[in-house]
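Write out the 3D structure for:
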Amino acid sequence: MPNALSHETSPYLLQHAHNPVDWQPWGEAALQQARDQDKPILLSIGYSACHWCHVMERESFENKAIAARMNELFVCIKVDREERPDLDKIYQTAHQFLTERPGGWPLTVALTPNGHAPFFAGTYFPPAPRMGMPGFGEVLQRVAAHYQAHRARMGGHERAFGAAMARLNPPPSTAQLPTAAAALAQAAAELARQFDREFGGFGGAPKFPHPTQLELLLRHAALRDGDGGDGGDGDGDDDGDGGDGDGDNNGGDNNNSPSARMLDLTLRKMASGGLFDQLGGGFYRYSVDRQWRIPHFEKMLYDNAQLLALYSDAAQYFGAPLYRRIAEQTAAWVMREMQQAHGGYASTLDADSEGAEGKYYVWSDTDLRALLRADEFDALSSFYDLAGEPNFEGRWHLTVHPESEHRAAEAFAPGDGGNGAGDGRDGAGDGNGNAGDGAGDGAGDGAAALRSARAKLLATRDERIRPALDDKILTAWNGMMVKGMARAAGVFGRDDFADSATAALDFIRAAMWQDGRLRVTCRGGAARLNGYLDDYAFLAEGIVELLQVRWRAEDLAFAVDICDAMLAHFEDRQAGGFFFTSHDHERLLYRPKTGPDDAIPSGNAAAARALFKLGNLLGETRYLEAADNTLRLFAAALDRMPSIHGLLCMALQAREPSNPTIIIRGRPAQTAAWRALCRRRYRPEQLAVAIPPQTPNLPPALAARQAAPGNQTVAYLCHANHCSAPLNSPQELEAQLKTGESGRG
């Protein structure tokens, strides 16, 4: 008989609807039951793609004896951390308080029935004692006994724990903001001390990509250069070679700084290793080893959104075809496997299929030899390092052989994967902007055999039982992917990427913007849950990026509505910054203000960046003041450890008055050269929009920047609240931009 989760829409909660555990969703009914029965709450938090969540379900939650003990001793609540990041943030922090180590998923927490304060926390537990871990049944008994023995003292514990967590929010700050240059330099120095100089990335196993920290290195390198690399304008026609978007490789000169070298090594190793899906595109969650060879096989929308933008920027900065290919393959995978018919992007792909982690992606030696001709097998084996013992539980997970990294173009046919990644004429490059020795025109027998082998593997893989797709649409994650797609569209001149981002934004506006508020999640036509700061901040950032690729007046109006709602419902007008939950959200143990980056970067930083950009575009001082107050709240943290506040460092850059805002007025057919110029170089905090001459109802700051008589195209170059006279040619605009860059200091 199903439990109370059977009425939910979350795929994760529905996975547990037939457990013998009396699971309930978080809500007043379950919380009231705990109070009425004076039972502690057993809170279990996970998500649908979580491998160890599946393991614990099979071992414990489907075990009738363990389930009976859970039902007897606790009120059992199951939470999807992707739908309720507010609860996950609170109780992951509580886990660290109680255990003095990071948490994870599944998260297992015992709470008091009244104040919902945690008095026990852990993650995965086996059903019986194993490898030094106690059995879950024993844990349940001991936790319940502890509650009963200390029941009289739990009220004091609730008050003390709530007060301790409240102190995590920064107090109003009088500290002076560091300059962006100083913050980036300090962050780069901190990251250099953690850097793995052999394989890239930070620290040892497990190794996560940390895209925000990698972007810090890119920005620091570009700041030291004085301007970004020139990777070409990317205005291809999507016929496979992408025009001149691979640039003239003069970006290769940009790998001389320590930050550029750290970034370049990391991006190349991630791209050639097992963290990247070498056949289908897209990145897995993290690597279980230091070398990036074997991943944890789940694929998350938010990871790929950030890495898509990062590799696009790296392609622009370094002028490296390898990075363009990785970005375009990632975008192609998102459109093929994650974008739903209504336009929204699904959340995750499971790590498991047919009950085994990675089964969909890996290959036995027997399967490979049966599927491929001898020459195809030899080419594949050489390129993907299939010598010796298989690298994953008796099977092979494809990773590029270190000696093959510079031959990457050999693996790809023209337009392979729908990515327009180039036809191999200039080789793959080595990620440093230097042309590799490549496959030439692809006529070599080894290159042809390798491409044929890849095509066979991908076709065979497509016939396997796929990992489960969590098809709920999350506003915050969709906002991140709208930004990533729009960024790639602008860098590479790809209309299909812009179309994808537009479709996702249109779905969010139609389905998840209700009565002037955003909803968190939508599945099966049901949008629900009051939005969090991240929903507003990341969606606003995505719209700002998309406006630079294609102008739609309704998108600007939507961005303004979102920012106005964010100020009304989340801003702390006294201390500065934004709370993660809205002013009318249910009262929880703790109301955080997110400053440091996690797997999801800081919502406060994303809000500040969006407000700075829109504020400068529209001349809206309310936005600029709110963004400035946010940065000032975190000034001491930025000064103390900028590397864990990466997105705030970028917001600090967005605050600088030297950032160019470019307003182009002209017919779309006549503005292509202007727009290409604006995206030719890596200028991360530049904002450039092209607005048709007869666009009605523009805000005053934009309406004042009119096209020339006869609707001839002109551009206005603005810094802070000052705009130039109309510039009549792209050459004039380029000269003014260079003058501004040479004068930076």
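The first helix runs from residue 11 to 15.
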